[in-house]
Structure prediction request, 379 residues.
Amino acid sequence: MEASLGKKPVLIVDDEKNIRLTLSQALETLQLEIDTAVNGEEALAKLEAKRFGLILLDLKMPGMDGMEVLRRVRETRPDIKVIIITAHGTIDSAVEAMKLGAVDFIQKPFAPKEIRELATKVLDRDNISAEKAKGYAEHIELAKKCIGDREFDSAAEHVRQAIAADPTKAEGLNLLGALQELGGNRLEALKNYRAAIALDPTYMPATENLNRAANWSPKGDITLDEPKATDDQEEGKKA
Amino acid sequence: MANDLFIVIVGCGRLGSHLANQLSRAGHSVVVVDTDERAFGNLSPEYSGFRMEGDATEIAVLKQAKVGKADLLIATTRDDNVNLMVAQVAKTEFGIQRVLARVFEPQREAVYQRLGVETVCPTAVAAELFLKSIAKEGPA
Prediction:
């Protein structure tokens, strides 16, 4: 609807000063207006005051955490794009975030170019249309767009087309797995995570998803605590 | 765009931390890797980059530091062999264009250069400065 989404301001939410600084410096060159918030409360206040097009959101913050911010944002501003900032290592809450329409993650540490590329990709996603999409990359982008709109069924359909276009990519299978997990189809999800790992044993997101999904508590509680050195087990136990 | 490099520095001792502080202040995005978390105490309060505890001779650690995306890697640990190995891996495995390393033993410099690694040898640099200073004063 709104053609110039790319010109809308960007909000950076992180409690660490150096992260806010790195991200703003990297995005400044895209000629975007940038605002920052140090915690969830400030972020929500700023979100009410201005119409942001994109949020870069840290999940782990003192006080109101990023997931809660995401939840509230989804109620009031479902159109807003969100990129999740994660510490290096695991993304325990990836599926939870996806349920709330956030499918793009950037892991610390980040290179300025990487930040710009991701932000551009996310902002440009609205311009891809389903009719013209062909090839793996475009279908994946479309799938992510559908997740952003929380149309999970069509997202899964696009992921399937992406996989058909290039069956050798682990990311596609991992994404399909996550979508199936969201839909409650845990067994199929596990299969796809395993297939992703079989394709590329070094693709960590699939390994982490498999570990988490394999001992997920029935209620579906997802812990935000990241295991420090050992990432093998003991995830998903906290209520 | 010159002030927008992504730089990985291995070793956060006197040299590594000094470089990290300066480069970060100049506006670059910096990651410092050191095996000892206490070494990060050498960083100035204004340092705005990332710090990562880990052994840079492990590929997984370099991957986590996103060495593959780096414009520049500087190996500054106190061990020549570690610097050489990290520099070599950065160059051949991750295909980084510019790799710099400190090397204490002047005789090793040739090996580095064959691998396309730029080196700074504190011994040679200090010797050169001493000699220059002596030549300037000279015997009257």
Summary: Confidence is low (pLDDT under 50) at residues 1-6, 218-239 of chain A. Chain A has two domains: 5-126, 129-214. DSSP finds ten helices and five strands in chain A.
